[in-house]
Specification:
alpha/beta; Rossmann fold; 6-stranded mixed β-sheet; 4-stranded parallel β-sheet; 9 helices; about 25% helix
Length: about 270
């Protein structure tokens, strides 16, 4: 049985773009519970949509009991905005037992090719450090609500470069690049590095040739440094294989509904 925690009082929530499809195609029986509730967990599997309602507490409880859960949220490419409303033109990620996906090596570029991703050469010089905090929900989940202040203090121990903070753009009922007053590409133009906890800004930075320092629990940690002491000498590797992996773990509403998501997850031996 897959128990889906959803905001039952919000029938217009984008979560239903995933959950309606999951209820049609998931290999196990499904049921939906309100995500504002508390629960006594059994041996079921569970599915969540971001950190809405009581999800942070519920996820922590499930992790402590070492039960299986699925986490759905914004994608790495093809993000929903108020222009991308069709069921085949925007994506949502799905993660097993984590809030971000793992790095699966040696996948082809078929799914990544849909996004016309261009990867620039590694940045050889730069002036400032761009700090991109994740949402409050992510930092609360990580139990690091003072991540930004602590990060700035740690950086100042190892560099005297200017620090520019870029908060997550929000507006019009959504978040991300479409709501940005200043595109992240502009703030990366003269950046020496990007520092983030678990933000998807890591993708945009690496594609622009800018090295990334991230949280040890970030989805970027397999290919990026996590030690603040290395800020002046961060590693940078070709992110193509990693990007291929990300693209294979996010799906359109149509793909959740027609069985493509379940089929791919089975092929990857995730499901």
């Amino acid at each position: 049985m897959l128990t889906i925690y959803a905001p039952s009082d919000k029938p217009q929530s984008k979560c239903w773009e995933v959950f309606n499809g999951v209820q049609k195609t998931w290999p196990d029986d499904t049921k939906v519970l309100d995500n504002s509730a508390t629960n006594t967990f059994s041996l079921d599997q569970y599915m969540f949509w971001g950190f809405t309602g009581n999800n942070i507490s519920l996820v922590h409880q499930i992790q402590n009991k070492k039960l299986t859960y699925w986490f759905t949220d914004t994608p790495y490419f093809g993000r929903f905005d108020n222009k991308n409303l069709k069921p085949d033109n925007h994506y949502w990620r799905i993660c097993k037992n984590n809030i971000h996906v793992p790095f699966i090596e040696n996948l082809d570029a078929k799914r990544l090719a849909k996004f016309n991703v261009k990867i620039k050469d590694k940045r050889q010089k730069g002036e400032h450090i761009l700090v991109c905090p994740s949402s409050f929900g992510i930092h609360n989940y990580l139990k690091e609500i003072n991540w930004l202040e602590n990060t700035i203090a740690k950086l100042k121990q190892h560099t005297d470069r200017p620090i520019v903070v870029r908060h997550k753009p929000r507006g019009r009922g959504t978040s991300g690049p479409s709501e940005a007053v200043v595109p992240i590409e502009k703030e990366l133009e003269n950046a020496w590095a990007c520092v983030t906890s678990c933000s998807i800004s890591a993708v945009e930075s690496l594609c622009n040739g800018v090295p990334v320092l991230c949280h040890p629990r970030s989805f970027a940690a397999p290919i990026c440094d996590t030690d603040y002491a290395k800020i002046e000498n961060l590693k940078y590797q070709d992110p193509t294989s990693w990007l291929n992996s990300l693209a294979y773990q996010q799906f359109t509403p149509e793909e959740y509904s027609n069985g493509t998501a379940v089929s791919v997850l089975k092929d990857l031996k995730i499901l």
